[in-house]
Write a structure and sequence with these properties.
Number of domains: 1
Helix content: 10-25%
Structural class: mainly beta
Strand content: over 45%
Oligomer: single chain
Distance between the termini: 20 Å
Order of helices and strands: HEEEEEEEEE
Largest sheet: 5 strands, antiparallel
CATH superfamily: Jelly Rolls
CATH class: Mainly Beta
CATH architecture: Sandwich
Radius of gyration: 13 Å
Number of strands: 9
């Protein structure tokens, strides 16, 4: 990856359009990181009513809600989030539900 500036506003609009058109109701684009990096940041767009099924995180993770409203849920609780909210993700199996068309920025630090 290079040091090119990424407009999250433009990318969010593009990915949300892809999510709305997709049968899965979601679209994602990795902004930073990948197989050779510990830090990975991925912009995820979710159509209202769609989400991310239960899954585990490969390391410490956070969500920043850029647009819309979501619910992060896990077995013993949940956390609502709306545009501008920053949410630490518990290190347990969890899921994300989009209450309206939403865009989130997922940040994960993979363990060594």
């Amino acid at each position: 990856m290079d040091n090119t500036t990424v407009s999250l506003t433009e990318l969010a609009a593009t990915e949300l359009a892809h999510a709305i058109a997709a049968s899965s109701g979601r679209s994602a684009h990795t902004i930073w990181g990948g197989h050779g990096k510990q830090l990975r940041q991925t912009l995820i767009a979710l159509k209202a009513g769609s989400g991310l099924a239960e899954h585990s995180s490969p390391g410490e993770a956070t969500l920043q809600v850029l647009k819309g409203r979501i619910t992060l849920r896990w077995e013993t609780g949940s956390q609502a989030g709306s545009a501008g909210d920053f949410i630490p993700i518990p290190e347990v199996v969890h899921a994300v539900d989009a209450l309206e068309d939403s865009v989130i920025l997922l940040t994960v630090i993979k363990p060594h």
